[in-house]
Structure formats: structure tokens, C-alpha cells
## 1
Amino acid sequence: MATPRVLSGMRPTGQLHLGNYLGALKNWVALQDSCSCFFSVVDWHALTTDYHDPSAITANIREVVLDWLAAGVDPERATLFVQSDVPAHAELFLLLGMITPTPWLERNPTFKDVRENLKDRDLSTYGFLGYPVLQAADILIYRADQVPVGVDQLPHLELAREIARRFNHIYGETFPEPASLMTEAPKMSGLDGRKMSKSYGNAIYLADDEETMRKKMARAVTDTARVRRTDPGEPDNCPVFDFHRMYTPEEERAEIVDGCRTAGIGCFDCKRQLCDHLWEELGPIHERRVALAAAPGRIEEILAAGAEVARVEAEQTMERVRAAMKLVR
């Protein structure tokens, strides 16, 4: 039985945080053992919303890949590359754009949501409307069998499947239809109780050292009804307890619940215990990241080698596409 091929990517918008790690990156590391994995830094996608100032993209690529490697993504077991280093993505994007009906793009739920949330930017561009076609090209050009997605990303993958079906109907069987590889991404609260996000300034980053992590956690919002140390609290109303659910052993977690509800422990003690457990996972990641950052040229070597592999795979697909469309001269 053939090894399943997996494709996934991340936009280079800066250092990755704990939510990115738990929601995607930790799963990527596990997939390397059973799948042929292609992981791409999708820098052209960053231009769809940040075209007005792309100056940070190059530096952000390095930061993202540092986080991937530190978290355990292994270039010996997966292909890591930058999207723009494989120009065939743009060719397939153009060809798929020729057959993709505009209403398919206008019904994309993210289209309206992002425009609503980024009102300070002019997103009335072809690039922003058409980015799902570029996303489909990213997937189809590697003939991916599976794409790791959360529930909120399913519409994007279904559009890629529809584009593949339409191409196959018009030109003959060329692309496999990629299946979703559902990921049970935990909901990661930020330090202020909202979803962890770079834009909210409420994140713990994989690049944070222990002191920084502990200082951030010390400022984290807890049960707002617990005003004084002697007031009992309710863990279910405390964003910090969401972290305990993921990082604190069950027996110790039960003691924290009891101590909170009886005012037997204070929020400071609760956070200190959490940080001890959190650093057990983040500490080795941070240590590897520091070592990688001190090795000039290593990131570039890994991405150059990955791009070579990706270009070969992409060109094989494009030969099939050109032949199917009778574009071979």
C-alpha cells in the first residue's frame, strides 16, 4: 500500500505561538512517521492581505521555519520549502483560475469574514478573491492524498476538491481529490481569555524563554469574580485553567480545582504550577530553537534542498496538466 502524501502550509506572519503548535504543528510532527509530508511556507498567500508592505515576509519565513524545526519537523522525514521557490505553483494557479467560476469564490465564507475583520485594508483585489484557487494549486500540484484541516478550514478544502473535479471533467482524469485529515485542534485561550492570536497580543510564543513565559502567565486573566485571595474561584470561568486541562496531570489538576473553589490556593500558586508543567514541553523546543538560530545558513540549506524536491514533483504534475489541456507544443 502506497504511503499517503500530505500537504500543509503556513503563512509567514511571524513567530508561531502555542495555539499554532497545538492546533497544527504538533500534528505535523506526528504525521512524519506515517506519511510522505510536504510542508510549505506559503509566502504568496501572505501578499493577499499584506501586499501593501511585504518587507517583513523574508524575515518571517526564517522565524516560521525555526519554529517548525524546533518543534520537531524533520527535514530528513519531510519536505520543507517556500512556495515562491517553486514557480510551477503560479502556473497551475493561472490555469486553474481559467476554469474556476467566480461565484465559487464569492461564496467562500472566509472572504466576507476577513474583509469584515480587516476593514483598515483594501481587500477588493483579484488576489484576495482568488486566493482559494492558489490554495487549490498548492495542494493539487503535489497530488496530495490528505490535507490536515480543522473544521473551519473544510470549505477551503472542498473548493479545492470541486476545482479538481471540474478540471478532470473538462480535460480528463488528472488530479486525485484530496481528502480531509481532520485534526482535533484544542481551543487555545489567550492570556486575556480571547482566542490566542498575534493580533491580540495575548500569545505565548515558541520563541519565548522561560522568564518571558512566566511573566506573561503572571499577567494572565483568571476568574474575574475572584477579586481577593480569600474569595473562592471557579476554574470553569478561568482562562488559565484551560492550560491546566492540557498540561497538568489529572490528579494534580483535581487538587487545583478543589483549592480554587475553596480559596485554598491563590491564582499565583495556580499559575506557578502551570508554568512548571508548560515549560516541560516548551523548554526543549526553546533550547532547540536557540541552537538552530545560532547556525547561520542552516535554514537556507534546508529550504533549498526541499525546494529541489518540490520542484521535481511539481513539474511532473505540470507535464500531466499541459498534456491534458493540449498545451504541449
## 2
Amino acid sequence: MTIKKRIVSGMRPTGALHLGNYHGALKNWIDMQDSFDCFFFIADWHALTSDYEDTSHIKEYIRKMMIDWLGAGLSPDKSTLFIQSHIKYHAELFLLLSMITPVPWLERNPTYKEQIAELKNKDLSTFGFLGYPILQAADIIIYKAEGVPVGVDQSAHIEITREIARRFNYFYGHVFPEPETILTESAKILGTDRRKMSKSYDNAIFLSDTPDAIRKKVATMITDPQRKKRSDAGDPDVCNVFSFHKIYSTKDMVDEINQDCRKAAIGCVECKQKMAESLISFLKPIREKTQYYQQNPDTVDDIIAKGNEKASTEASKTMESVREALKI
């Protein structure tokens, strides 16, 4: 019997998931379930690092996220799905790792610098925000993960985790493997206004959107900005709607629209309508599974409880090794 390599990853609960979340991470997770021993968690403690002032929606967002995961295709039979804050061993390991992690390692974290600059409306001068890479390291190595699936822009995060694991092993003996970065590819999805898809920009299409909501949102999408009139030839290569067609429509439809747009044989309104129906068709099975879990809350509770139990068992074993290494 082949032993699968263990991977760990998580998402902060920010509400319903949109297409950017799906293609940015979730689809890769789903595709990896058959090849890896997967531990996927909802990172609710991480949500507090920047949004600590208002925690009123976190429980609601956790549930929405878990239901979206299940609807999209994460399977409790193939993956361990759990909630970070329900596994208190994460906090214990975070504390112990914070004792050995040099502050300059945290201050040079590129994401730390970027978010300090970008989120000027929030007070991020907290230990929790500075130290979140230590919590992230604890999240990963407590399950002795051999790999972490991330995009290339997040690879620096995993390097900090590797450095922390290496430093612990140097002081106390080998306890943790150094997790490898598993680079994943994702389709580039922009929002309806051609900016990055984000709930805060009000430009997102959600996995749980109804067909009517999808049609209304797609109708507002920006197309080729140079195409002023219906009779003008368009350039699909600069059109956000066409980029969606390439992901959600059939190859025949993509080829047809590519040709018709360039010779003004199809207008932007009709092009959007066709794409909306393709997207609705793609999301239909996800929406149906999501509705099932929404209507069966006990099933969701059972999945969370079993995932938490398995994660807790694994984390407990690791912490026994950690305490023994530290002689405490």
C-alpha cells in the first residue's frame, strides 16, 4: 500500500466563496484529494490578525465556508476538514515556536510590509499580526505536513515555516519535517469591473449565486473598452467576458465567439448572455450540493466534528513529541 504524502492548507473565513477563491485555491485542493493525505482547515484565528475589532460574523462565515467547500467538491471521505480554533494544540505550539523565532524573520515577511502599507485604515501594530507567520507555521508542522499547496506569490510564507521548523530541530532534535512548497497553477479570474475579484470591491460572482444573480452581474461586466458600437469589430484578447468564456464555455462556443467578435458578427450583450448561461451550467452541480448541505445542518455538524476529532488526534501526537523534545 502506497503511503500518501500529507499536505496542509487553510483559508480565512471571510464569508461566501467566489470564483476567485475557487480557482485560486479550492479547485487545486479538490484535484489533490485522491493523490495526497489532505488536511484542510478554516483559519478563524488568522481572521483575527487583521479583523480583530469586529468578530460578530466569524461563526456565520465559518459555516458558509464549510458548506461552500463541500458543495464545490471537498470530500470528508478523502480529506480531513476542520476548524483551526477547535484544535487548541495549534495555540500551544504557536506559543512554543514564538520563543525561538527571531523578530527580524517576521519583520522581513513581504506580506507583513505590504499589508501594513495597504490596510492603512486598520491598526495592525499588534503582536498577533506581526507573529501570524509563527501561527501559520504551527498550523502546518503540527500535522507534520510534507507539503503545502500555494501559488508562487505565497511561497515566501512557506519558507518562513521551513526556517522555524529547522531552528526547532536544531535546538531540540528532529521532530518536524520541513514542508515543501507545492506550487499550484490557477486560472486568472478578474472581477466584473476588471479589478481583482473581491467581496470588498463588490465585483465578485459567488459560488452560491442564483442564476438570476449571475445574469445580472454578468450584464454589468466590462468588455473590450475600444468597442464603442455594436458594428465595431472587437478584440477578445482584451475582453474580460471572453476570458470567462475560455474557462466556462465549450471549445466550439469559444472558437465561434472569437471569430464573430473580431468581425462584429456578435454584440457584447449577446456575448454576455451566452457566457452567463455557460457559467450557470458550470455552477449548477455546486449550487445543488450547497443547497443540500444548507438543508441538512446536522450532516455539516457531523462532518466538522469528525474532522476536528481526527485533526486533534494527530496534533496531540505531535505535541507529545514536542514536549518530550523540550523536556517540559
